[in-house]
Write a sequence for this structure.
């Protein structure tokens, strides 16, 4: 039987609880005694200054519960140059990102979006997907033209520049270590879970500075050194394909995305302001070198319009070292029979800078280890055909930031609550990777039967607005 408390007793109990909360929170943020070395002590060390790592730093720096924590951001590049980046006035960079509307709103809440060059960001509400072999087509048009159903295209450097400016606004709460690689790693003993332990993970940087952190967050990409040092296993496969990215100058402005599945891999044109677009073309390994050196606007126009058999003819001409004039004449002759329609993108007039990267599927055994968490490509790599790579990484960041914030508010040790993060994100990431991988295999199949089934499925889907709306919500949000 409970005995009612008198008013002064309730006030005393509340006071004790609040005092206890403050004490526990202080313990969670307290730094261990500095050993007889030059080791610098941090609550959190983020390794990787790309989009995921910088977003992680900006998110943690914005949380009141972490206002007394020391946070370090480590990257091998010169982040100060990216922060001060002045964009070119006559072109766009080929390395770009697609951001879903929900993630854009998250970046807006962090105060990042308005620190980017917004005139270089393109929102869009329509994506046209076609199958070159099966002749199927799906026109995904957002039923609501508001930004809640839109996706956004932004240059990678533009986003990172805005993130670094937001981090600067947090003042001394985040220390940035640029041009620094992790050269050595000492793990925390598994048996020591004390929040005041002196044996947190210790990372030695290439400039010989040592950082000891209660929690290390690996945001250092597909070849993550944090993941390797933490002994987190990976599995997956290489696609024997490369992604070719380039900046396109179009004959007319574009406000929609276009993707065509070719037997040799999907090709996508993604919109940017002012009549520019970004090309993302997945190519078999034997074609990448040919097209890196011989890519022209005529070949891109052909890839969106000619049949797979006709494209093979163009590839054969490239292999046989045919002249640019011969190839362009062949393409022009074949394109004269193609009539424009709303499933075709605008004509490409010129191509600017381009680059390439290998494509792979890489999964991890876990997103966490002892006092280690992975976000972004460090924890999952997949084919870019759906543009979901960074979006998954941003969702990782939001989830981990929430877990750490709740732990800090409860006075818990932020280095030992990571199971909550792993349980929320691991399965979701695997599911998205599986969906994208299955799409790549299905659309890469050259069987006439599979092509016919694809065509029937796409044609049927195109007639179901409610289903298309669900797809738009899932991938564009």
């Amino acid at each position: 039987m409970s005995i009612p408390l008198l008013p002064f007793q309730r006030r005393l109990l509340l006071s004790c609880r609040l005092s206890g909360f403050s004490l526990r929170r202080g313990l969670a943020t307290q730094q261990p005694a500095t050993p007889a070395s030059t080791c610098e002590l941090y609550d959190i060390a983020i390794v990787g200054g790309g989009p995921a790592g910088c977003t992680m730093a900006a998110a943690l720096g914005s949380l009141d519960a972490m206002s007394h924590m020391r946070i370090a951001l480590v990257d091998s590049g010169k982040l100060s140059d990216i922060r001060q980046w002045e964009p070119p006035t006559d072109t766009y960079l080929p390395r770009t990102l697609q951001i879903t509307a929900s993630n854009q709103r998250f970046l807006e809440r962090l105060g990042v979006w308005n620190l980017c060059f917004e005139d270089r960001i393109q929102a869009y509400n329509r994506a046209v997907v076609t199958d070159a072999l099966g002749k199927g087509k799906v026109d995904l048009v957002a039923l609501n033209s508001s930004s809640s159903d839109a996706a956004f295209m932004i240059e990678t450097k533009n986003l990172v520049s805005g993130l670094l400016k937001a981090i600067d606004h947090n003042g001394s709460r985040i220390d940035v270590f640029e041009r620094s690689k992790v050269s050595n790693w000492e793990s925390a003993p598994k048996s020591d879970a004390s929040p005041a332990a002196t044996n947190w993970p210790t990372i030695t940087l290439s400039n010989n500075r040592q950082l000891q952190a209660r929690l290390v967050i690996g945001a250092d990409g597909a070849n993550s050194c944090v993941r390797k040092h933490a002994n987190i296993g990976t599995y997956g496969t290489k696609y024997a394909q490369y992604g070719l990215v380039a900046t396109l100058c179009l004959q007319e402005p574009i406000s929609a995305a276009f993707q065509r599945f070719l037997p040799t891999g999907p090709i996508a044109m993604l919109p940017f302001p002012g009549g520019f677009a970004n090309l993302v073309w997945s190519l078999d390994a034997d074609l990448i070198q040919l097209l890196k050196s011989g890519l022209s606007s005529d070949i891109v126009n052909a890839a969106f319009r000619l049949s797979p058999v006709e494209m093979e003819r163009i590839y054969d001409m490239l292999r046989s070292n045919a002249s640019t004039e011969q190839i362009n004449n062949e393409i022009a002759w074949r394109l004269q029979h193609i009539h424009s329609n709303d499933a075709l993108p605008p004509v490409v007039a010129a191509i600017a800078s381009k680059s390439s990267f290998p494509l792979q599927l890489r999964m991890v055994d876990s997103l966490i280890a002892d006092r280690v968490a992975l976000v972004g490509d460090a924890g999952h790599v997949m084919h870019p055909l759906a543009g979901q790579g960074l979006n998954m990484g941003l969702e990782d960041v939001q989830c981990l930031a929430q877990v750490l914030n709740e732990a800090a508010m409860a006075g818990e040790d932020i280095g030992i609550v990571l199971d909550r993060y792993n349980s929320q994100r691991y399965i979701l990431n695997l599911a998205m990777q599986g969906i994208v991988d299955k799409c790549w295999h299905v659309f890469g199949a050259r069987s006439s039967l599979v092509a016919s089934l694809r065509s029937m499925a796409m044609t049927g889907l195109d007639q179901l607005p409610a289903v298309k709306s669900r797809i738009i919500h899932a991938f564009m949000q």
